[in-house]
Structure formats: structure tokens, C-alpha cells
Amino acid sequence: MSFLGLGGAPQVSSEAKIQAAEAELDLVTDMFNRLVDNCHQKCITKGYSEGDLNKNESLCIDRCVAKYFEVNVKVGENMQKLGSSGAFAGRP
Amino acid sequence: MSDKPEVKPEVKPEVKPEVKPEVISLDNNASKIDQSSSQPKIKEIPKSKGYSNPALRAMGLPPLRIPSRNWMIFWAVVSVGIGGIAYDKYQQTKIRQKWCDRVHNYSLETLNPNEKVRKITIFVAPPPNSFLNDSMYVFRRYIKPILNSSGVDYEIRSENRQGVIRSTVSAEIRDLRRQILIKNLELEKLNTENQWFNKISKYLKSWITKSDKVLKDEQDYLKLQSELKDIKNLIGIYYQNESLKSQTTIYKDSEIIEPSLNGGVICIGRGAYKEYIQGIHEGLLGPLDKPLDDDSMVKFNSSKISEEKAIDIELPPKDDEKISLEVVNQDKIIENNNEDKVDEETNLENKKEKEEEEELDENGEKLLPIPKPFISPLDYSNSKLAPEFQKFFDSNSKIPTSTDESIIFQQPILVIPVYNIVGFLNIPRNIYRHYTKRYLMEEYGKATVSVIEQLKSNFNPQNDLDLCKDEENDWPKNWVKKGQERNSEWVQDLIGDERVLNKLWVYDAEKVQENPEK
Amino acid sequence: MDQLNQREQQEFQKLVEQKQMKDFMRLYSNLVERCFSDCVNDFTSSKLTSKEESCILKCSEKFLKHSERVGQRFQEQNAAMTQQMRR
User: Fold this and answer.
1) Residue B306: exposure state from Cβ atoms within 10 A (0-12, 13-18, ≥19)
2) What is the pLDDT of residue B438?
3) Can you give the residue range of the structural domain that contains C20?
4) Which domains are seen in chain A, by residue range?
5) What is the value of ipTM here, to two decimals?
6) N or C: which end of chain B has fewer CB within 10 A?
7) Which residues of A touch C (CB under 8 A)?
């Protein structure tokens, strides 16, 4: 699960390795939580009429997740482009 | 002429014109008939109001100032023009709302989180001499709102050149045939193995158990690695929830046994429909492998989009006039069809050369050539109908795919015409069409509702090959002529084989009831 | 993560389990806050009305199902993306 190519720098100590893997995990869980919050905000109406998701909401959620991932990828690409051209200073 | 009384300096002035009762003045200066009053008038009565239309005056309306005749004509023409369009748009929204409300209830049905809704495939092709955007406009305006309000998922497959739809559809069918063939072969193999190796395998197992421990460690390691990568062990919602972890995605359509009640296909444009039918025939009746050229199955760019963004393969410049694009399009059609003609005459080597030449298009991007049809329409009656599928055809069951939904040709078809006339002399016809789009909305809305409600009927080989044939009347004659000279796909007649056509289904807009009982 | 050897991976697994529990707690508190803010608006009494109770029930069900669905889609998309990146 190497996300966006992070965690690729070869490090010797196992502590550092575990830390890097942990950071990756945190990224993934954080992304998931944001995804849940955002898609809930955008797709599910507030007046709760029933406890089940209907087809519209389900479709909306599917598309929301797909678009979120696309945005993730695109922003990553843009960041790389901007980073390589030196527009950002000191980005870890 | 009325007399004005003389103004005496000491007496209060009387400026009011007096009209003697005997004189009925019908002239322009119609002023109030007033008795000569003894009371002096304080106010000055304003001068006469000027021209008042006798027609208005006859109707009893007070003298109004209306614009001149020319202006009236101008405003009348403009308001009729704008009013017509406004009325048409208003009616369109009303009709759209009506169809949307009709299907809205389907979207309120509940779903479990691991279930996926029914998915429709939509094939879009651009009208001749025009952009893909024209067909997408038809889709977005008339069909998409209704699909969205009904809770049905869709996938759009579009093309920018002729032949892409045909090749993708036929490739899909061929893939499935190959899969089933491989599965059958493996089954047979297993059967024979079971008979022979039963005894031998028992003997071998005793050897294997000695080296078991080493294997087990490795397996544990791999299992651990895969578990760590699995998101289900990471996210809170799966915490200690084994039943949730083992859930698999269920496609709602896979639960429906009847293959023609799965999914659906909408072809937008007569060209897309032709290519689709040809693709089905090619896939079912054609050979599994490419004739002439066995190595390097040519990959083709068929743009798959799930929303509106059309990934243009050859990036047609959208600002330029259509003329330049027409040249570009025809160039490509020439390229593709040159390949056709050349192949028939020369051998493999020459063909490969030509393919390499064609790979760069005007923008310098690599344009992979579209594969020729594996079988020509004239050979349909000579070939066998997909022997791999035979048992499924006999039992009228779903051909097994990876998602357990029925394969595309088992799903019913709907064709939506895209009317698009070009030309200076056709401007009046075009204007008329702009004013009458509400009829299109009604028609297409009804057709889309038939897709959603799954009102299908059998494909009628005599009539249904000509679905939306009237769209061809709109195709520019020059384009058609040039296409016929080059043998391009769209201008040829649609030939179908009865064995294949009898297995197809069609969505029937006639079956949509105007007012469903609810 | 592929570079961890076997012992490290076992240590890591404990870490992952801890993280999962933490995330679960976070999910729970998030859910409580959400249902409260969406459903409970009437502070004329200190007991929940039946309307609010039913609303909370539906809200929590819906949110959990929503999370499940997002989780499944997330997994699918993740798998698709890693496959793409490997190409």
C-alpha cells in the first residue's frame, strides 16, 4: 500500500521504518475519514426519513468516492509539477 | 375653429376654448365640449394631446401614445420570435419534470451498503460532419435528467471515429467467448485428472507433508503482509466486525435471472446503433482470433467516460469552423479505409508498414488504427453462431460474466436519433426545429422511461434494423457519397443475421402508459 | 511497507490493531456529534422526545451504512489505483 510513492526512501533502522509505515497508515485513515464526512455532507439529506440508504444516495456515494480519488490523484500530480518547478519552498 | 375670447386685463382671463353646441367638430383638435360657464376657470387646460388612433378612440380607450406603425411591426415580430422560444423552453421543462416525477419513486427504493444498482451502457457517436458534443447535448438535455432521477447508474462509451464502438463491442464478446472456452477446457482437464491421479496423489501427499513446515512459515508471512495491506484491518468501522469484513459486493442485477431484465443499452445516433449491431454480429459470428495477423492484438482507444468529460482522442480544435474538422475527419476515414483496400491486395509486410505510417495523426499523437472487422457482413450466413455460448442460448440463461450480470447483447436496446442538419439552405428547417424541441423531449422522455421501467419486446428482424432510419435523411448528401466511395461503415446498409437478431431485445416506448395507476 | 521484515511486521500488526480501535472510537464520537447536531434542536425539556429518539435511531443507522458503503468503495478504488500505479 505505498500511497503516492511515499515511504520510498531507504532507511536502515527498524524504528524509522515503522514510523514511516505508521505515517502512511495515518494518511490513509485520515483520507477515509474526510471522505466519509464530505460525502455525507454532500449526498445525504438532513431530514432523516428512514434508516436505510436509497438508490439515489447510494449512487451519489459511489460517484463521490470515485471523484474524490480522482481529485486526490490530480492534486498529487499538480503538486509534483509545482514542486519540481520550485514554486513551493521546503516541502517535506 | 373655436374662438378664443379676448383677454381683458382687469377681468380674469378665460383661456378655455369654447365650442358652440351646433358645431360638431370632427377634426383633429377634438377638445372637450364645454358649456360656456359663468364661473371662471382657474386652471389652464393643457393643449390637445396630439394624434390619437381612431381605432383606439372608437374602442373607447382614452388617448394613449402608442409607437408608430414601424415600431409596432418590429416589436410584434421580435416578441413573436422570442415568445415562441420561451414557450417552447417552458414546455420542455414542464415535460421533463413530468417524466422525472414519473420515475422518481424508483430512486427511493432502499439498498444495502454492499449492493450496486443496475447499470446501463450508453453508446454515443457524433453525427456526420459534426462534433461529439452535438450527440452529448441530446443526451444531457433529454435523457440524463430522467436517468438521474430514477436511480439508475450509467456508463458512457463514446467514440470520435467510425468503428470504435464496433471493435470494442466485438472485442468484449470475443473475450467472453475465450474465457468460457478456457473454463470448459480446464473443467475437462480436471475431470480426466480426477480419474487418473487419485491413487497417485495420495501417494505424493505423504511426500509433501515432510516439507510442510517451511511452506507454512512462508505462507504465514505472506498472509500477514496481505492483512496489513488490507484496509479492512485499518478502518474503524470494521473493528471486530467479522461479518462486515467478509461481505462481498452484490450486483443487484445478478439477482435477476432473466438475462434481458439486466442492464440496458442506449445507442445515441443511428451510426452508433449500426456499429453496435455490427459489433454484436462480429463478436458472435466472427472468429476468435484476428485473421491475417496473429501477433500484436492492436489496442484501440475507446474513450470510456462515466460523466460528461469526453477524452478527445485526436483533440479536434473546437473553436475552428467545422470545415477544417471535416477535412481532418475525412482524412482519418481515408487513412482507415486505405488500410482496408491495401490489405486485400498486399501481404503482411506491407500492411505493417502502412500501420506504422498511420500511427501519427495531425497533432503528432499516436493514433492506433481501428481493427478491421473480423468478418464481413456477407459472410454472416456462412459462419457458426458462437459455439461457446450455445448451451446458454438453448436454456435462455445468462452467459456468465465476472459480475454475474448478463452480457451486453442480452440486454435490450434503445435507439435515440440525433437530428442534425447542416447547410445554409436548411436554416429555415433548423429554425423550425429549434421552436419544436418540446416534441423531442416528450418522445425521448417516453423512450427513457421505457428503459427504466424495462418494458421490452422481442427484436423484430424485419422492422427493427431500421430503427431511427429517418435520421439518415439528415445526413449531408456529400458526406454520404464520399462515404460510399470509400466503403465506410456508416453508409452501408445494416445487414443482420436472423440467428443473432432473434436473440436481441428492444425497449418499446409504446408500452409506456401515460398515467400509471398509483 | 514491503520493506519490513517478519519480526517488524508482527510488531506492526499490533500497532495496526491499536489504530483500528482508535479509529473506531473516533467514528463513534463523530456519529454522536453528528446525530446530536442534526436531530436535537428542542431544549424545552431535559429528556429526549420520541421524535428525537426516532430521528437519532435513523441517523445512526444511516451513518453506519454510509460508512460501510464508503469503506467498500474505498477499498475497490484503492485496489484499482494500486494496480494502475504498478503498470
Assistant:
1) middle
2) 93
3) 6-86
4) 12-84 (1.10.287.810)
5) 0.83
6) C
7) 1-2, 5, 7, 10, 14, 17-18, 21-22, 24-26, 29, 32-33, 35-37, 39-40, 44, 46, 48-53, 57-58, 61-62, 65-66, 69, 73
